[in-house]
Amino acid sequence: MTSLTLQQLIPVIQTAVGPVILISGVGLLLLSMTNRFGRVVDRSRLLARELPAAGPAERDFLAAQLRILYRRAKIIRMAIILAIASVLLAGLLIISLFLAALLHLEVGVLVMLCFILCMMALVGSVIGFLLDLQVSLTALRVELAQAGFHPE
């Protein structure tokens, strides 16, 4: 293995800064998504505890809410998985860049593939996040209808 001088390593570090910033940004997105996931789980547990003592009409309402919450939990889980995949691919991209510089390897295809897959996972994660927002509006609509208010 050949050693690199500081002058040779600086451009590699500069190139790796982009994926590092991406990891930081996706970390904030993950924080937001895990908070939403936690709220969905907490709300589901609360409603599930109310279900056994509920009357028939209230039971239907609670069941509808629980179905929506379960759907949201699955969507958010998939968004979280895709965000984590994006972070892992960004990490692999950084490792590939450094190994290529250290070992003088040609890894252009690997770098390109890691970057494209990283971005696709991130886009999928954000789409899941948007879908969760849409489904949460559906849950709100059901709850408002139960209270006798019809916003539309």
Features of this protein?
rod-shaped, 0% strand, 152 residues, mainly alpha
Question: What are the SSEs and their pairings?
Answer:
Elements: H1 6-50, H2 56-103, H3 108-146
Helix pairs in contact: 1-2, 2-3
- Secondary structure tally, helices: 3
What is the distance, rounded to the nearest whole angstrom, between the alpha carbons of the first and last residues? Answer: 68 Å
- Oligomer type: single chain
Helix content: over 70%
* Number of β-strand runs: 0
Weakly predicted, low-confidence segments: none
Series of secondary-structure elements, N-terminal to C-terminal: HHH
**What does the average pLDDT come to?**
92
For the largest beta-sheet, the strand count, sense and barrel status come to: none
Category by helix and strand content: mainly alpha
Instruction: Please tell me what the overall shape is.
Output: rod-shaped
Q: Can you characterise this structure?
A:
The structure is a single chain. The model has no long low-confidence stretch (mean pLDDT 92). The longest helix is centred in the middle third of the chain and has 48 residues, at 56-103. The protein is mainly α. The N and C termini lie far apart (68 Å). The chain contains 3 helices and no strands. Helix 1 packs antiparallel against helix 2 (56-103) and helix 2 (56-103) packs antiparallel against helix 3.
Summarize the structure.
With 152 residues, the protein is mainly alpha-helical.
